[in-house]
Design a protein that fits this description.
single chain; 229 residues; alpha/beta; Beta-carbonic Anhydrase, Chain A; 10 helices; binds zinc ion
């Protein structure tokens, strides 16, 4: 069995960092949560939303799934884990913002691209990532000759737009956005450069929100050429 000591000592460090010099925070959090935003991110171990945004306990209501996808609103008699999380954040916690955080080198989106070749991906994963099949098809139609890596980077961004569109199929999301009570954001994190982009609906582009890592981080020209697209 692998040694989990580092996770145990990590919890001690976490307690010291967040509550050691601010013991009042614990009692404040006990009385309830009032996060500003719902963040929908990928399960990928390299893209932890709380770490990335340097958030404290209580700041973010986080929903993670393969490829940070939002399915369309459905009244079917299934288990709606994602939809119930969105419902709780929007209707009960009344968050003011929803952030869909996509990322580069996403294995889920890679699986979605592979499924175009008829490859069966897992027992559940293939069906799940097919939520963004329209994103994959758009990329393959618009850039059929490009390298797979470039297509996948493009699909990662297109899939964010699918999730943003699907969010608006939830009537209580649409209603709150129309009233100006709720804002939705599409973010894309490049783990190679550390750069964060956001989708600007006015330009239809993912524009730079936060520049890359501080000096010292290596970024090849080739990587830049792929990721800047
Ligand atoms: Zn991912």
């Amino acid at each position: 069995m692998a040694d989990v000591t580092k996770f145990i000592s990590g919890i001690a460090n976490f307690q010291q960092q967040h509550f050691g010099e601010n013991p009042e925070l614990a009692s404040t959090l006990l009385s309830g949560q009032k996060p500003q935003a719902l963040l929908i991110g990928c399960c990928d171990s390299r893209v932890d939303p709380a770490l990335l945004t340097d958030s404290a306990p209580g700041d973010l209501f986080i929903l993670r799934n393969i490829a940070n996808l939002v399915p369309p609103y459905s009244k079917s008699d299934d288990y709606h884990g994602v939809s119930s999380s969105i419902e709780y954040a929007v209707c009960f916690l009344e968050v003011s913002d929803i952030i869909v955080l996509g990322h580069s080198n996403c294995g889920g989106i890679g699986a979605l691209m592979d499924s175009a070749k008829g490859e069966k991906v897992g027992e559940f994963i293939g069906k799940w990532v097919s939520i963004a099949a329209s994103a994959r098809d758009k990329v393959l139609t618009e850039m059929p000759q490009e390298e797979k890596e470039k297509q996948t980077r493009a699909c990662e961004k297109e899939a964010i737009l699918v999730s943003l569109k699907n969010l608006m199929t939830f009537p209580w999301v649409k209603e709150r956005v129309a009233k100006g009570q709720l804002s939705v954001h599409g973010w894309y994190y490049n783990m190679g450069t550390g750069q964060l982009r956001y989708y600007n609906p006015l330009t239809g582009e993912f524009e730079i929100l936060v520049e890359r890592y501080s000096p010292g981080q290596k970024t090849t020209e080739e990587e830049q050429a792929i990721t800047e697209k």
